[in-house]
# Entry
Amino acid sequence: MSRKRTTLLFYLFISPWLLGFFIFTAGPMIYSLFISLTDFSGIGSAKFVGLANYAKMFTGDPLFWKSLWNTFVYTIFGVPLGLIAGYLLALLLNTKVKGLGVWRTIFYLPSLVPAVASSLLWLLIFQPDFGVANAILRWANLPTSNWLLSEAMSKPTLIIMSLWGAGGGMIIYLAGLQDVPTSLYEAAELDGAGPLRKFFTITIPMTSNVIFFNLIMGLIGSFQVFTQAYVVSNGKGGPNNSTLFYVLYLYSNAFSYFKMGYASALAWILFLIILVVTVIQFKFFGNKVYYGDSTN
Amino acid sequence: MDISKVPENTRKKKSRSIKQGRKWSKIISYLLLIILSVVFLFPFLWLVFTAVKPEREVLTFPPRMFPSVWKWSNYPEVFKLIDFGQYYLNSIFVSLIGVFGTVLSSTLVAFGFARLKGAGHGIWFALLLATMMLPSQVTMIPVYLIYSKLKLVNTFVPLTLGAFFGSAYYIFLQRQFFLTIPKSLEESARLDGANTFQIFAKIMLPLSVPSVITVALLTFMGFWNDFMNPLIYLNDQSKYTLALGIMQLQGSHVVAWGPLMAASVMVIVPVIITFFVGQKYFIQGIATTGSKE
# Structure
């Protein structure tokens, strides 16, 4: 096949995505950038306001800061805890236990439950008056909590809920762990390395690519947390805005208050935050990650 | 250390203590696995048993795991309280269209990226990967405004049309699989006069059944579980999908917990069935995206 013909066929095959890229990604991004510079309710005409939406965000909107803070707290605790929980589960499953498939299924299934259904279930479990969480605490003579109805506990409760889904990461870690050649451990044992030393000098570095992948995807996902918060607070982000996460606030601005301009500006700031955080991760960890011998 | 020089009895002692240590670590492993399994399974059990509890027993403190009478009528009650059957059909419809569109577009595009190194290949592939990082919220508002202009809000079009233009994540997954298929097969087919499209349809696709199933299963879950898009686009209750529909049971004043949990069970069951049917593909597919970059 000639080079020209290959190029033609290449574009023919990728044309669905290419079209989609322009219609659903690139075009809307430009449109969104424009809307973010206007005062626009979605109907009628947009009024150009320059950078006023961005200025308002940073100087005149406490809810912007509140939602940013909420998302930050949820992410800074939830993502590392989720990573560690998933990794520990994978390590446990990688110890040549019998019935691997059964254990793996038990830990993985919760991560597949639709967010709406799991949030409703946890909402019941964490009911202050008749929920089973408080019943267990009472039985163990520990102090009970108002959980999702408490301003201080609502975010920790959502983090606990998110840990139920740690099995999603576990599957990826487990695959990574199973790829580590056993010869490395054997060599280290001959050199007299103990279990902890082997863990930190072999296991962690050799699975750094999957840890890195889960970290990046985990952070991106966590910044966009929406459904859980919407369901447990009935779309309001309560109590006292303590579950008003960034995307929930963005959604409310766009589809409850019809401030499309302001919501678009919020979306661009979110994009910038995710971009910066991802670039920083690549800068700090990117060169320390081991990608194996594959050249793909 | 040369093991042959160690006196016989110390060697035995040492191997016995290692064996003892192994035995203990095995016991601890299983103990941890059992405790953690109870923790992970407990919410499921709570869900299933609450779904058949009389409302009075849901609201007592301390609550009990098992109902005193099994109130199976919570299940038919769901269909009386909300238009559950309709939501079910809507979810199935949207999910199937979504799966069809995604599989069709992702395999075509992935083939292009895996096998046809045309001019600009590298740039477009980098862009494809970059779009995975883009939060959907950036394009959500303009795309909504476009659909609104086209009078397509409150239809299933905004929920499903995008699938036909491929999704970066699934294209990537499918491409990774195509790369593992040896090129020699195509070369001999080409010698027999097959064109590129025939190679795609008659060689690559049949050999990619596992990854196509993976993509199909993951897409199905994605559409079945989606909450935000239906929330934005669907106004009429008759158009609601399940994720949106069951929220109605969580009314603003009184929550009917029994029926709500019964409804949740019915929403989760297809997901669990899907998982068990395609377990092998699932775990492989998810592991592939994570580890082989």
